[in-house]
Design brief:
The complex is a heterodimer. Chain A has one domain (about 5-390): Sodium/glucose cotransporter (Up-down Bundle), CATH 1.20.1730. Helix content of chain A is about 80%, strand content about 0%. Chain A is built from 21 helices and no strands. Chain A has helices at about 10-30, 40-45, 50-60, 65-85, 90-105, 110-120, 120-155, 160-205, 210-220, 230-250, 250-260, 265-275, 280-290, 305-310, 315-350, 360-380, 385-395, 395-400, 400-410, 415-435, 440-460. Chain B is an all-alpha fold. Chain B has one helix and no strands. Chain B has one helix at about 5-35. The relative contact order of chain B is 0.09. The model of chain B has no long low-confidence stretch (mean pLDDT about 90). The chains are: A mainly alpha, B mainly alpha. At the A-B interface, α3, α8, α9, α12 and α13 of A face α1 of B.
Chain lengths: ~475, ~40
């Protein structure tokens, strides 16, 4: 089957894009009325409830990659491939107790950068910011490019138009609504994603017999059903540690921990991990059905939409289109908001202008969101395919941040110089592994080196830390109680 | 050695049922938060 048989009519694609684009902007503007001060804009008033908290964590973690790459993992690595992708949810599960502790130690905190600066000092903070900003930009650019590529493949919308439209919609509602708009739209997006995944999966199951799929795969590609598949097992652990690194360090998740009401963050992150876990398996199942349906897979990352289109026709292509649009928007808006917070709070307020008022930082945040949108657009526009790989390149960098963050939160004696060198050496050795061994080992090795450095330096030279130092008095003079 | 068929079947059905339950849970939680005026 050819992809052209299953794609949407471009007019239908544009109509869907316009409908959902207008809906997100309208909702963003509606909720944005609450985002008057800095705390409202950056942290949704620190009062987010369980439903929105769980939904925003889940939707942000469902990217277009989850929908497109999970079936590809199934086609290339079989059962273990789907499970490998699902292990990315363990990061959300493990972040649940961390979010609780973050709220307790830093009731007035704003960013993950605040934590590293107060816990480990300036040098580690600068290295951490470089890693975090590099990773966030790589994620933003990969989402922008994926948006353009997928909309073109599914609906024939020209790459430049599709990519620009998605970025524009996300920039507008994040700009006016801040984290209120991001979290509010994330709820609707998460429900739509789940409805889409369940609907497509259920219809495919009603038309195809799983026994037949099993026998076809066993006959044509038995390795996909193999209990022992070394590459897939390695990628499972690599994916898991990449996920830990991405979630533990990034301000996308820290800002949510700060934004949730007291007592909500633990349950919300736990629930989001449980909601996320089955999605790659449900989406990956489509990849396993390709052989039974007689689909010739020439482009592995399009196997999911191909299967949905061949079983459900244009309706299936439409569902996949909407699910992918929601997945992209829920990640891009979160990245715009969280990265703008890092630049406004850490770089501007803490490095450049410590006496800046909250109103000034609030205004600057808006300009940063516009700037980030423009920079992402400029990097996505030439469609340089190697930029899509940069996100994987960031794997060892974020992997090296796992232990400094975890030890910093729980280990009173963690050595600050050790944390700095853990990030530097973990990144360096992980990058060497990326080029010399393969992408599927880089995050794992980066995290392992970082763990050894943190443990060794703390064992050799333990430093006592006073946890109350994390409860920083803000420049406006407000202080919370731990 | 290959995964037995029933394991693959359980995995796929559990993933779809799990996703469906997740969707219902989110909607119920929203309803509960809305009733108690604790959405934000």
């Amino acid at each position: 089957m050819d992809l052209r048989e299953t794609v949407l009519d471009p007019t239908a694609g544009w109509l869907l894009l316009a409908f959902f684009g207008i809906a997100w902007v309208a909702l963003g503007l509606y909720w944005g009325r609450k985002a008057r001060d800095l705390e409202g804009f950056m942290l949704a008033g620190r009062n987010v409830g369980l439903a929105l908290g769980a939904a925003t964590a889940m939707a942000t973690w469902v990217t277009s990659n989850t929908i497109m790459l999970a079936p590809q993992f199934a086609v290339q690595m079989g059962i273990w491939g789907m499970l490998a992708y699902s292990t990315a949810s363990f990061g959300l599960l493990l972040f649940a107790p961390m979010a609780l502790r973050i709220r307790k130690l830093m009731p007035k905190g704003y960013t993950s950068g605040d934590f590293i600066r107060l816990r480990y000092g300036r040098a580690a903070w600068v290295v951490f910011l470089l890693i975090s900003l590099f990773y966030s930009m790589a994620w933003l650019v990969s989402m922008g490019m994926a948006g353009g590529i997928v909309l073109k493949a599914l609906a024939g919308i020209p790459y430049a138009y599709g990519m620009s439209a998605i970025l524009l919609v996300c920039v507008i509602y994040t700009l006016f609504g801040g984290l209120y708009a991001v979290i509010g739209t994330d709820f609707f997006q998460s429900v739509i994603i789940l409805i889409g995944v369940v609907t497509v999966g259920a219809v495919v199951l009603s038309r195809i017999d799983v026994t037949q799929v099993y026998h076809d795969v066993a006959a044509q590609q038995p390795t996909l059903l193999a209990v022992f598949m070394p590459v897939a097992l390695l990628s499972l652990f690599n994916n898991m540690f990449f996920g830990f690194g991405e979630i533990f360090h990034n301000n996308v998740w820290w800002s949510r921990a700060f934004a949730m009401r007291d007592g909500v963050s633990y349950k919300a992150f736990l629930l989001s991990g449980l909601l996320w876990f089955p999605i790659p398996v449900a989406a990956g199942f489509l990849g396993l059905c390709a052989g039974t349906l007689g689909i010739n897979v020439t482009d592995p990352d399009m196997v999911g939409p191909l299967v949905a289109g061949s079983v459900l026709g244009p309706i299936g292509a439409m569902v996949v289109f909407v699910v992918i649009f929601c997945s992209l928007a829920s990640s891009i808006d979160s990245l715009l908001a969280a990265t703008s917070d890092l630049l406004a709070e850490d770089v501007y307020r803490k490095m450049i202008a410590p006496s800046a008022s909250e109103a000034r930082v609030r205004k600057l945040s808006s300009w940063i969101i516009i700037g980030l949108g423009l920079l992402t657009w400029a990097l996505c526009m030439p469609r340089l395919n190697y930029l899509l790989q940069v996100l994987f390149f960031a794997g060892p960098l974020v992997g090296s941040a796992i232990w400094p963050v975890a030890a910093g939160l729980y280990w009173k004696k963690a050595n600050p110089t050790g944390a700095l060198w853990a990030m530097i050496l973990g990144s360096a050795v992980g990058l060497v592994a990326y080029f010399q061994i393969g992408w599927f080992t880089a995050a794992l090795i980066g995290a392992a080196v970082s763990a050894v450095v943190v443990c060794l330096t703390t064992w050799l030279a333990p430093r006592e830390f006073d946890w109350s130092r994390l409860n920083e008095v803000t420049p406006e003079g407000t202080e919370g109680g731990a | 050695m290959l995964f037995p068929k029933f394991i693959v079947e359980i995995l796929i059905y559990a993933a779809l049922v799990g996703s469906g339950l997740g969707m219902v849970t989110l909607l119920l939680l929203l309803f509960k938060d809305f009733k108690k005026r604790r959405i934000w």
